[in-house]
Amino acid sequence: MSTSEQQLEKVSAKPELLLSTQHSLCPGCGEPLAMRTILELVSELGLRDRTICVGGIGCYTAFPSIIDIDVIQALHGRAPSVATGAKRVLPDRFVFTLQGDGDLVNEGLQEVIHCAARGERFTVVLLNNGVFGETGGHMTATSVLGQRTKTTMETGRVAEKHGYPIKIADLIAQIDGAEYVARGAMHTAAAIKFTRNCLRDAFQLQLDGRGFSFVEILTMCPTDWYVDPAEGPKWLDENFLGTYPLKVLKAPAA
Amino acid sequence: MEGSHAVAEAAIQAGCRFYAGYPITPSTEILEYMSHRLPQVGGVCMNAESEIEAINMVWGAAGCGVRAMIASTGQGISLMQESLAEMANAELPAVIVNMMRGQGDYYQATRGGGHGDYRHIVLSPHTVQEAVDLIALAFYLADKWRNPVDVLGDFILGHTSEAIAFHALDESDLPPKTWAATGARGRKSLNVTPLGSPEKLNLDPGSHYGHIADKLPKIAAVEKRCETGFLDDAEVAVVAFGSPARFVKYAVHLCRQQGMKVGFVRPISLWPFPSETVAEAAGRVRALAVWEQNAGQMIDDVRLAVLGKVPVSAIGGISHDGSGFGVGPALDPETIVGRITDVYKGRAAA
Fold first, then answer.
1. Predicted confidence (pLDDT) per residue in A180-207, tens digit
2. CA-CA to A168 of 20 to 30 Å: which in B25, B27, B83, B263?
3. Per-residue pLDDT, A253
4. A43: burial class by Cβ within 10 Å (0-12, 13-18, 19+)?
């Protein structure tokens, strides 16, 4: 087997913690890639038996029934509070939330801010595609300027009319209780690798009993960006990275 | 012990190990007590940043199988309604204490202030001792039925000091919480969710909601609780719940001293409502009078139970002092006796 064939075999293997490859998400969606990355890390770190995932409400709500880890389903926006209750009563468990931008930045902004300020010892994962995907592509608080959504169709997002996108990772990085904050993406192999490292650092921080960690992951939504599935990564690169550069915004001193 | 502190201590005695609250009169003393007492027993008390965050913290703790409680008053409970509705769908046991301002939250508690087909079991104590006993019962029923249980108190209950005793319930028939999310060590992984089946690979919201709805008549069949008094020869019965029922019971004594044949019916479970007991009382008397400190809410359930057999009149009403917290001038035995007397005098015409 050549090296490239070995690599091909590895990246197409079903993650150990995925119960079914059947899901209802659109072709080209970035969320399954993010879920996969998380599941691989949970496996790799041997955390399956003590992991509690707290899921939000969005397209990714398709995942709880197909992932082989305990899930507490939260209502829209409430995952950080639900995770607080869980982690506080079971402090030795590994807890992470999975939320979209509509869930975390629109509906639940207050929850994640207070949660970070309290330095809750779990990891919040944000899947940011700049749209309410599940309802059919409406503007969220993170839609970038110029972005056409169902509710900004004629002009794209215009600051004078629709306000500015919230750079949530930057906001959270300013909060004392947040120890690790990073922004990754799922649009290229290099970005996935970077994001995977960010997630691992965030998870490790939690495993070390340290404070709040937050990883934003930019994900493709070709359906609601009105591009072909194969064009999603390019669209993300051209339209999101200016507003949302990939970087570690905050990390404990080595 | 003061009512609020007694309620909090009763929760701890019943095994409550997580409390989240947001200060609001007249429930704040429960949060204060929990903040120093829960850590002493290895529990967690969260001074949450909002009511919505508080109830969702309770969601998380309850979802891990830990006994959890929250307290507020009607206004705060209103803010929590989406979660309170969906906690029933997620089959999450938790105890919700509402220290009401008056009794205006009867509908909110018994109809469910939120969306969808659900009910909370609602228990309504009229003394501090009963509050202590019902808190223990509430935790037991919450686990038995995997459903939230509300305890409906008020300003008076929360701020009345009485001698009390704590009694442990026999809970040996409660099954282990194998449904709780704890990390899937040595077992299949699971979901704690209001959206469908707890099993993986089995999303079927319709049958899940059907399962939730099917529990309701089963709860209603066995969990009705009610106190009655002086009904044997009564010609008028007064129906009242909560702290005002204590005033009503005393007023009924006074009526008896004056030779009036008056009895009382005091629903303890407001949902399920003790309809049969109320109907049986209606079968004995010529008129029912409903004392509640609101514009008329429980009277609907009384009328549904009575189905027109006897006249049902409202003799309570909104009554507040300057605080607005529901301690009103109408809560006066002489006033209550006067209103019962009016119904008693009119009973022959009925």
1. 999 999 999 999 999 999 999 999 999 9
2. B83
3. 86
4. middle
CA–CA dist A199, A205 (Å, integer)? 10
The predicted model gives B66-81 an average pLDDT of 98
Strands A138-139 and A131-132 turn out to be antiparallel
Contact B182, B65 (CB under 8 A): yes
How far apart are the C-alpha atoms of B113 and B9, rounded to whole Å?
27
Do A195 and A217 form a contact (C-beta atoms < 8 A)? yes
Q: CATH number of the domain at B3-173+213-222, out of 3.40.50.300, 3.40.50.720, 3.40.50.970, 2.70.98.10? A: 3.40.50.970
pLDDT of residue B203: 81
Measured CA to CA in angstroms, residue B275 lies from B34, B271, B272, B303 at distances of 36, 10, 8, 9
**What are the CA-CA distances from residue B69 to residues A9, A73, B72, B159 (Å)?**
50, 19, 10, 19
Q: How many other C-beta atoms lie within 10 A of the C-beta of residue B276?
A: 11
The complex scores an ipTM of: 0.96
B181 contacts A70? CB cut-off 8 A: yes
Cα(A57)–Cα(A98) distance, integer angstroms: 9
Instruction: Round to whole Å and give the CA distance between A177 and A46.
Output: 27
Nearest to A82 among B63, B186, B197 (CB): B63
Cβ-defined contact of B60 to A110 (cutoff 8 Å)? no
Domain boundaries, chain A: 26-131+167-250
CA A192 to chain centre: 12
- Record: contact A83-B60, CB cut-off 8 A: yes
**Which parts of chain A have pLDDT scores under 70?**
1-12
Interface probe, candidates A50, A51, A52, chain B, greatest B C-beta count within 10 A: A52
Sheet containing strand B226-229, edge to edge, reads B226-229, B262-267, B236-239, B287-290, B312-314
Report pTM.
0.96
Of the partner residues B61, B191, B194, the one whose CB lies closest to the CB of residue A89:
B61
Return the H-helix or E-strand segment holding B195.
none
The amino acid that residue B152 corresponds to is: L
Strand partners, A131: A139
Domain covering A26-131+167-250, topology: Rossmann fold (3.40.50)
